[in-house]
Amino acid sequence: MTQEFHRIRRMPPYVFAEVNQAKAAARAGGEDIIDLGMGNPDTGTPPHIVAKLVEAVQDPRTHRYSSSKGIPGLRRALAGYYARRFGVPLDPETEVVATLGSKEGLANLAAAITSPGDTILVPNPSYPIHQFGFIIAGASVRSIPASPDDGMLEALERAVRHSVPKPTALIVNFPSNPTAYCADLAFYRDVVALCRKHDIFILSDLAYAEIYFGDAPPPSLLQVPGAKEIAVEFTSLSKTYSMPGWRMGFAAGNARLIAALARMKSYLDYGAFTPIQVAATAALNGPQDCVAEMRALYRERRDVLVRGLAQAGWDMPSPEGSMFAWAPIPPRYAHLGSVEFSKLLLARAKVAVAPGIGFGEHGDTHVRIALVENTQRLRQAVRNVRAFLGSDSNRAESVGPEAATVVSTEAAAV
């Protein structure tokens, strides 16, 4: 049989493959590539969290099947975090589910609440699972602007008027991956009011809640009165505690949506390994100095990168949150698009970045730069880019066939 499977047909080819293949080939040839492509934290998990994992894993009782919705102590710890950080009360029994990272939770909730042909509203550009979780579940995705302003609100109103069927759910993600946009509570109030009026669920991705550089920390959508009637919010320990490989996240909010996710998960997994859940509990309940240190580290890296590239002639907005810079392609190279520019930057400056088109077609004018190398390596990247941009012999030329389609992938990750 040669026909392609239905759900696989709805997933475009892997747009990051060209850049990743070029990166692998360069490294195989002995070249020193500075990899700022994947959002993969380079710092180790804080020692007290690792120590709790080691302690827990030495107890044979923790080697058995765990709980798919999360052990009770972990769900209580997440509820405690929301109470301290946002002033939001949560019932750990009915309003919290532990997930295998926020990505798994988003995908499984999409599968739980979606009927074929449903209309889902997703910012474009956005983290790939935001749209493809629903596409895999059979929905149709309608793109809306990605910035948290009147443009997004007006697009929501138009979508309600003109979509058939009426939208079922809206995705929001602030601080955002990849754009680093941040939203305030006033914007969330408007979104909640609009979605309550039209019976639209909201799925909020708050994975970068603790990576912010301004005076005011990012709010939770659940802080808005009435939000829990229609909304669920996803958080993650991956960036906050530098635990990406541990795969520990949460969903919190509307009890009906949480119950749907918990029921779906009960058929699909037994939850994370119990020692990981015990260590995650220690992370949430323990000392938080490590979070402040992590935030300061990313701020320093942001400043080195953004200021250095500005001096090199590549201006970009300084992100107020997340671990990414969303960089417009320099005008001289704009005609190449994000894939070809990324390949050119890799070949000439030895710096790997993520092509913006991997996050949606409206991202093709940008590349995403992850703050996942130390300041010394970032300064080296700036020097390499400065030499590339300043070379008299340099021409804005393509280094390979252009990619024609948008794709989502794990390399865009986290």
Textual characterization of the structure:
The protein has about 425 residues and is of the alpha/beta class. It has 2 domains: about 5-45 and about 290-410, Aspartate Aminotransferase, domain 1; about 50-285, Type I PLP-dependent aspartate aminotransferase-like (Major domain) (Aspartate Aminotransferase, domain 2, 3-Layer(aba) Sandwich). Helices cover about 40% and strands about 15% of the residues. Strands 2-8-7-6-5-3-4 form a 7-stranded mixed β-sheet, with helices on both faces. Strands 9-12-11 form a 3-stranded antiparallel β-sheet. α5 packs parallel to α6, α5 (about 100-115) crosses α9 and α11 (about 290-310) packs parallel to α13 (about 375-390). The longest helix is centred in the C-terminal third of the chain and has 23 residues, at about 290-310. The model is unreliable at about 400-414 (pLDDT under 50).
